[in-house]
Give the backbone structure.
Amino acid sequence: MRDLSWSDVTPETVYLRRRQLLAGAAAMSVAPLAAALAPLEFRADRTPPVDEVTPEPIASSYNNFYEFGTDKAAPKKHAAQLTTDPWSVEVSGEVAKPGRYDLADILKPHVLEERIYRLRCVEAWSMVIPWIGFPLGDLLRRFEPTADARYVAFTTLYRPSEMPGQRSLWSGIEFPYVEGLRLDEAYHPLALIAVGMYGKVLPNQNGAPLRLVVPWKYGFKSIKSIVKVRLTKRQPRTTWNESAPREYGFYANVNPDVDHPRWSQKSERRLPSSLFDQNRIPTLPFNGYGDEVARLYAGMDLRKYY
Ligand SMILES: Nc1nc2c(c(=O)[nH]1)N[C@H]1C(S)=C(S)[C@@H](COP(=O)(O)O)O[C@H]1N2
Ligand SMILES: [Mo]
């Protein structure tokens, strides 16, 4: 499965992957997730990747998930203790249908797709991951946002008993982790709610049981282990922007022309990367998704709205 390219994703492999996903869910004893996934159809995505898929062991062991520690190896080490069943998502704000939705109800109507997306961390490393999920917009529409809804805000689980990073005084950010998007960004078909990767249920360290993936933005927008979704009139607060406003903006579109104050954003280390072979490649505007998303920002000064 390592070097899976787009042309390899035939209906059979997609079918196989669905079975693996279900088997994975059963093996991980996430029974409700397995039950919720069982009736789902799988559909292949239309966005062809141009790069090679990152080896799965790297994508599941080199993580940013401050709830489990700031070290890249900490999430894999500690996230096994996270309970992802039962899980529910509280939907509130500018919607006609607020409420607390069980994970199974969240997933039920959606067709899962595999989408191979680049993930570009602001720390200048990147990966290419075959995600499994469905469009965020399809989920939001079910809650019937009102005419006043202009943004969507997300919150990660706050459970210090299972998240050692939330008990630490050293993380540099406040918990719970929060993120947000403008509603038109959220409705863009590339914005994904992911529940799996590499044909399996998401490992806890990658944000189980459900997370956001916004491939044209820096990784920190892709908030993990979501428990709250709120539609708002005003731009919501976001964790990294509050922690260091000069370094991390609300928009966070991948932009090689706007340097991080402490390092360049012109290139990235495509994992696997080592001391001897950094595997450095140029960073593309909007992480390479400019043809699809640049129109969302027409007329905006992207140096000001970084
Ligand atoms: N709740 C939460 N979500 C988070 C983070 C985090 O620390 N906490 N880190 C973000 C950052 S900075 C990145 S680069 C990606 C990393 O995703 P991955 O570990 O699945 O590759 O998750 C993002 N989502
Ligand atoms: Mo990141």
